[in-house]
Amino acid sequence: MRDTQHQLEMAEELMQQLRSKATELLLREEWSDSIQVYSQFIDLCQHQTPITPKLHKSLCLALSNRAEARSRLRDYAHALKDCDEALKIESAHFKTLVCKGKILLNLNRYSMALSCFRAAQLDPQANGSSVGLNEYLQKCKKLELMSKTGVYDVSEWVVSGFRAKPPEPAEYIGAVEIRRSGIRGRGLFATKNIEAGSLVLISKAVATERGILPGHDLDENAQLVMWKTFNEKVLDSVAKCSRTCGLISTLSSGEDEDELEVPEINVFRPESVEFGYSSEKKVDASRILSILDVNSIVEDSISSKVLGKNSDYYGVGLWILASFINHSCVPNARRLHVGDYVVVHASRDVKAGEELTFAYFDVLNPLENRNEMSKTWGFRCSCRRCKFEAELCLRQEGIGEIEMGFERGMDAAAAVYKLEEGMRKWKVKEKETGYLRASFWAAYGSEKLMRSWGRRIPTMESVVDSIVEAVGSDERVLKMVVEKLKKGNGGSSVVEIERALKLGRGVYGKVMKKQAMKSLLGLGILEPSY
């Protein structure tokens, strides 16, 4: 009897020591060490018989604290499991409800997070708590609404000159679905008409890695280090969460595209229970790395803009749903990068049933140049523009001569004149006129050209409109239009300013109000003439 009592006392003393040590480590934010000590304490508690009410309370708190530490290490699967175990002991445990709510918020499961915070609000502790429960509640409500409507506004952030933190977006999936693609493998398709600038999806990265740009480019060694760190981050996320692993596994590794299933779009919604949030699934690291080789996205590319401080960095990341978007030389989508989120929007009007596409490389180039650039991506583009230009080259020698002449330094004005005359002679249709003007955009983008040839070539406005209709809004086209407006010294018409703003919405999306867009484009001081 004395031995048993002595053993109980020793066990109780050991548990007290472990609990004190774990709490100290937690307060010092030494997450891994605190998890290890809390695990020892929890294991010891669970082997005590009988488990007294006092011990139950200690066990509940320990599970809640371990969940907090695990969540700080982004081990959300184990953290949620700890929260659920704690809530089995005490269903209305304030600290656990708040912890679980924060984890679900990080996982973009807004409705479930909101339920946790509302339950916690019923506890008397809520009034004197320092966790900012009301702020979490308001944030959840705002993000839940945003996830349903896709309304995201960065106006204040833009007008402030990107000084503050960007407003946090909610994950959002618009009117799209995944189908078999006539371009390659599977693609993302519009299920209804989408107006230029309208948001298509907002997605948080599985992982990102960024490096400061010392000059124009990172050297090879720096890129290799970045890539290695990025791969490790993704593999860590995959190992900790079966849902992340399952979602990444829907992507192609480049060799098995035709054998892969076409996933339902609902699988990618944060509230989906597909794949679960356990951490027990075995990870095929080699396949994951092959998937990253094919699907990772560089933030600052020809079809994207990086807003805020990240624009000073070279960044790479994995945004799963955006990775389903194929290339076309007649792209209709662009993306913004805000923090760790990608915001995809239509760069021109998109019809229901049309596949959404990015420009993987600079499509404001002649066919031969585009063919060379597509080789570096491991494919040859066969979009309707490429087919049309290839057929035209076979039928009309003139187009080949213009392309060769332009490459060899032909005068831009002469190239444009020959092209415009040729298109009239070849009876090129209106949409296809935009294709060819896009191919020779470098020649068109000259103010001197417009002055020298006058009415013998189309106005810059008609050229811009035809290019944008064909290949979507492009930052360089927008820049040229804006510069022309600024040179007008305040004499620009309402129509001209509205054209620039429409182009801006194609480049940046409908994520800011008109005044913010004018500020971003440097048009804030311009007043229209009537």
Structure description:
The chain is α+β, with helices and mostly antiparallel strands and 530 residues long. Helices cover 53% and strands 10% of the residues. It has 23 helices and twelve strands. The protein has a five-stranded mixed β-sheet with strand order 1-4-11-10-7. It is elongated and about 100 Å long. The model has no long low-confidence stretch (mean pLDDT 88).
Keywords:
five-stranded mixed sheet; single chain; alpha+beta; 53% helix; 530 residues; three-stranded antiparallel sheet; 10% strand; 23 helices; 12 strands
Which secondary-structure class do the elements indicate?
alpha+beta
The end-to-end span amounts to 100 Å
Low-confidence stretches: none
> Beta-sheet strand percentage?
5-15%
Helix count?
23
Radius of gyration: 29 Å
Mean pLDDT: 88
Q: Compute the number of strand runs.
A: 12
* Biggest β-sheet strands, sense, barrel: 5 strands, mixed
Arrangement of strands in the largest sheet: 1-4-11-10-7
Level of helix content? 40-55%
Helix and strand topology:
Elements: H1 2-27, H2 31-46, H3 53-72, H4 76-89, H5 94-106, H6 110-121, H7 125-128, H8 133-149, H9 155-159, E1 172-173, E2 176-180, E3 186-190, E4 199-204, E5 207-212, H10 220-240, H11 242-248, H12 285-295, E6 297-298, E7 304-306, E8 313-318, E9 326-327, E10 333-338, E11 341-346, E12 357-358, H13 367-375, H14 384-395, H15 397-407, H16 412-425, H17 430-439, H18 441-444, H19 447-453, H20 460-471, H21 475-487, H22 494-508, H23 514-521
Parallel strand pairs: 7-10, 9-12
Antiparallel strand pairs: 1-4, 2-3, 4-11, 5-8, 6-8, 10-11
Helix pairs in contact: 1-2, 2-3, 3-4, 3-5, 4-5, 5-6, 6-8, 10-11, 14-15, 15-16, 17-20, 21-22
